[in-house]
Amino acid sequence: MVLLDEVAAALGQWRAGARLRRIIAVKFRRAVLPDEKFEISLEAVSGDEIQFGCAVAGDRVVEGRCEIAT
C-alpha cells in the first residue's frame, strides 16, 4: 500500500494538480523491503489513463494502470 501512496504523490508532481481517481490494475511482482530504494515511472497512455511502475535497482517490482483526475 505504501508504494501506491508514493505513486499517487508522484502523480501530483508529474502533472500539476493531478490526483489519483482509481487504480485500474496493479501487479506486485515481489515485496519491497523497508531499506530498499525504488524509482517510480509514469507514462500517459491516453487522456486520463496513466501506466506506472516501480523498480528496485532496475528490477521492475510493481506495474499497473490508473486513472487520474485533474
Explain briefly what this protein structure is.
19% of the residues lie in helices and 53% in strands. The chain is of the alpha+beta class. The chain has a four-stranded antiparallel sheet, covered by helices on one side.
Fourth-level CATH superfamily: Hotdog Thioesterase
Q: Could you name the ranges where pLDDT drops below 50 across 5 or more consecutive residues?
A: none
CATH topology: Thiol Ester Dehydrase, Chain A
How many distinct domains?
1
Which assembly state applies to the chains in this document? single chain
The percent range for strand residues is over 45%
Shape: globular
The arrangement of helices and strands along the chain is: HEEEE
Find the structural class using helix and strand composition: alpha+beta
The CATH architecture category equals: Roll
Give the helix level as a range of percent.
10-25%
C-alpha Rg, in Å? Answer: 12 Å
Distance between the terminal alpha carbons, to the nearest Å?
Answer: 22 Å
Q: Provide the CATH top-level class.
A: Alpha Beta
Number of helices: 1
Tell me, rounded to a whole number, the average pLDDT.
93
* Strand arrangement, major sheet: 1-4-3-2
Task: State the total count of DSSP E strands.
Answer: 4
Major sheet summary line: 4 strands, antiparallel
Report what the structure shows:
With 70 residues, the chain is α+β, with helices and mostly antiparallel strands. The protein has one domain: Thiol Ester Dehydrase, Chain A (Roll), CATH 3.10.129. Helix content is 19%, strand content 53%. The chain has a 4-stranded antiparallel β-sheet, with helices on one face. A hairpin with a 2-residue loop joins strand 3 (49-56) and strand 4. The chain starts with a helix and ends with a strand. The mean pLDDT is 93.
